[in-house]
Design goal:
Elements lengths: L1 H10 L11 H29 L20 H32 L5 H33 L13
Helix pairs in contact: 2-3, 2-4, 3-4
């Protein structure tokens, strides 16, 4: 047990955690959570869409777009593509934002809040672009009635 404690002390893992004895320690924790929750949710929903997508088109669950809800084939295709894109983007953003959160320790509180805001804006822009790309892919593959276009080769 002493060897494990010594190994964690050598790695300096305690420096990754904020100092909870101060108010700014709690603010730092909230900023880290705010930056990390988006990518983790994106990764989670992407994996759900890949592993167990909704079986049929509905207005409650699943990635919905006009062309994706036109037929069952279009719905399954849309869920598969959304799962791949969202889980991939979620994994990349989780890694990048974890690295960014580690660097929060060395900056002043206002600079930390500024960086967290920039990270959140980047996350929103990338998610919006991913959703737009999914819609474009579905529009290219399917027509408005939900049938695969004949000129698209898989």
């Amino acid at each position: 047990m002493n060897a494990l404690t010594a190994a964690t002390n050598e790695l300096g893992l305690d420096s990754l955690l904020p100092d909870f004895s101060t108010f700014m320690g709690w603010i730092e924790l909230l900023l880290r959570i705010a930056v990390m929750v988006g990518p983790l949710l994106l990764l989670g929903f992407g994996l759900v869409y890949l592993l167990s997508p909704p079986k049929e088109a509905n207005y409650g669950l699943g990635f919905r777009c006009w062309w994706g809800m036109a037929s069952l084939d279009a719905w399954k295709f849309t869920q598969r593509i959304a799962g791949m894109v969202w889980s991939g983007l979620g994994a990349v953003l989780t890694i990048v934002m974890a690295i960014v959160c580690i660097t929060f320790r060395a900056v002043e509180p206002m600079e930390m809040a500024h960086r967290a805001g920039i990270c959140l804006i980047w996350e929103l822009v990338l998610v919006a672009l991913a959703c737009l790309a999914i819609n474009i892919v579905v529009m290219v593959v399917f027509d408005k009635d939900g049938f695969r276009r004949k000129e698209v080769v898989e």
